[in-house]
Amino acid sequence: MSDWTIESLVAALRARRISAVEITDECLARIDRLNPVLRAFITVDADGARRAAKERDGELAAGRARGPLHGVPMAWKDLCASPGLPTSCGTRTRDYFVSERACTAVARLVAAGAITLGKTNMTELALGPFGDNAHHGHVQNPWRNGHCSGGSSSGSGSAVAAGLALGALGSDTGGSIRLPAACCGIVGLKPTYGRVSRAGAMALSWSNDHLGPMTRTVRDAALMLGIIAGWDAADATTSRRPVPDYLRGIDGGIRGLRIGVPASYYFDDVNAEVVAAVREAARQLGALGAHVSEVRVPDPVPLGEITGVISRAESVTIHERLLRERPQDIQPVVRTRLEFGAHIAAHQYLQALRARGRLAQEFLRAIFSQVDVLIAPTIPEPAPEIAAVTTGAVDDIIKKMGRFSRLTRPFNGLGLPALSLPCGFSTQGLPLALAIVGRPFDEATVLRAGQAYEQAAGWVSRRPAIG
C-alpha cells in the first residue's frame, strides 16, 4: 500500500493486477490498525466502501470504467457533505453541517470512479493550523508521534501520508491544505479562488475558502484538480473558464521559466533548516534551466491582517447560532477566535474587502511582471510538538497559530494558486516544504514547476516508517 500512487493504482486496476476490493480492504485494514493512533478519520464507511469496490470491479469486468479514478479509495475532510455520512466539521455534534446537496467536489470524484472510505478528522470548525481536536482526538503526524499534523485539514494530510487513503480533499481558508501537506510530507494544492466549487462544503469564510486535492505526488494532484475544477451552478463564485488538461505538458520541464524568491518576509524568523532546504530547492530549479532571481514582494503583513478581518467577520456570521446557543460545546481557543469576529464593525469589514482588492492588484503587478512563479517556505518551522503549541493561555496559543500560518495566509487574500510539496527533512526526520505560487488560474505552470522539482529532488520516494 505504501508504494501506490493514484496513477500507478489506476494502471494496476485496469491491467487486473489488483482489484478494487483488494485495495479497499487493504486501506480499511490499515485504517483499523493505525487510526487508533493517528486519529486521521472521524467516520469510516467500511461497508459502503466495500460495496462500492465490488461494484467498480463488476463494471471493469464488463468493460466499463466510470472515469480516471475508477476503483481508487479516497477520503473527504469532514466538512464535505457526502450522502449517507454525517458531517461533524470537527465539532461535538455528529451532524453539525446538513446540506441539501452533496459536496460538488466529492460528487465529481465519485462520478470519476473514486471510492469513499470515510470522513477525515479536522480542527474544530476549520479554525486552527495544528490539527488538535479535543472532541475527536489530536491528529498525529505519521513521521513523528506527538507532533502536529498541521491544520485544519489534518486528517486528510495524515491519512494520505500514512497510506490510509490514496488521495483526499481538504479546504483552505488561511493555509489549511498547505499546512498539513507540509507537516505530513505530501502534496497539497490550494487552487485559484473560483477554480473549484465549494458547494456542499461547510463554509468558514465565503471570501477566502478554497477546496483542493491532497496527494502523494504532483501528478496525482493535477489529476484530481482536473476532475474537481470547473464552473458549478450551485456556487456563484466559480469561474466559467475552461478547465485545461493539467497533466498535458506537466513533464515538459521548466527551462526558461522565471522563478522568483522573495527577498524579505518569507524567510524572516524562519527555522534555519527550512531556509536551507528552500534555498537548495531554488538552486536545483535553476540547475533544471529555470531563471531564478530574488524579488522584492509587497509587504504581506497588511494583506494578512485584512484577510484575517474578513475571515473572522464571516466565520462568526456562519457559526453565530452555535456560538450563541452552545458556547460550552466549543473548544476555548476556537470559541475565542469566533468571538473576535463579533467585534468587527460592518464598515471595518467592508473597508477590508475594498483594501484587499487594491493590495491584490498591486501584488500581481509587482510580482508577475517579473516572474512566472514565486517560491517560498510553506511553514516557518518543522511540525512542532502538539503539547508545545496547544497548552498555555488561550491568547498565547492564538499567537502561536498566527505565527505558524503567517506564510500561507496572504495567498488566500490574493486568491492565487499555491502548491506545497516536500523539499527535505529536518534532523529530527520531520518533513520540510516548498511553496510554489502562480498567477490566477495558472495552476498548470505551478504544477509543471512542482513536477520538475519533485522528479529531480526525489523526496517523493520517502515514506514514514509507520504500520
Task: Fill in the keyword field for this structure.
467 residues; Amidase signature (AS) enzymes; two-stranded antiparallel sheet; alpha/beta; eleven-stranded mixed β-sheet; 40% helix
What is the structure about, briefly put?
Helix content is 40%, strand content 15%. The protein has 467 residues and is an alpha/beta fold.
Structure, explained:
- This protein has 467 residues and is α/β, with parallel strands linked by helices.
- The protein has one domain (6-461): Amidase signature (AS) enzymes, CATH 3.90.1300.
- The protein is built from 16 helices and 13 strands.
- The protein has helices at 6-14, 20-38, 46-61, 104-111, 154-161, 178-184, 218-228, 272-287, 300-318, 320-325, 332-341, 346-368, 386-390, 394-404, 409-414, 443-457; strands at residues 41-44, 73-77, 115-120, 140-141, 144-148, 168-172, 187-190, 210-215, 258-262, 291-295, 373-377, 418-425, 431-438.
- An 11-stranded mixed sheet has the order 1-3-2-6-8-7-12-13-11-9-10, with helices on both faces. Strands 4-5 form a two-stranded antiparallel sheet.
- Strand 12 (418-425) and strand 13 (431-438) form a beta hairpin.
- Helix 2 runs antiparallel to helix 3, helix 9 (300-318) crosses helix 11 and helix 11 packs across helix 14 (394-404).
- The longest helix has 23 residues, at 346-368.
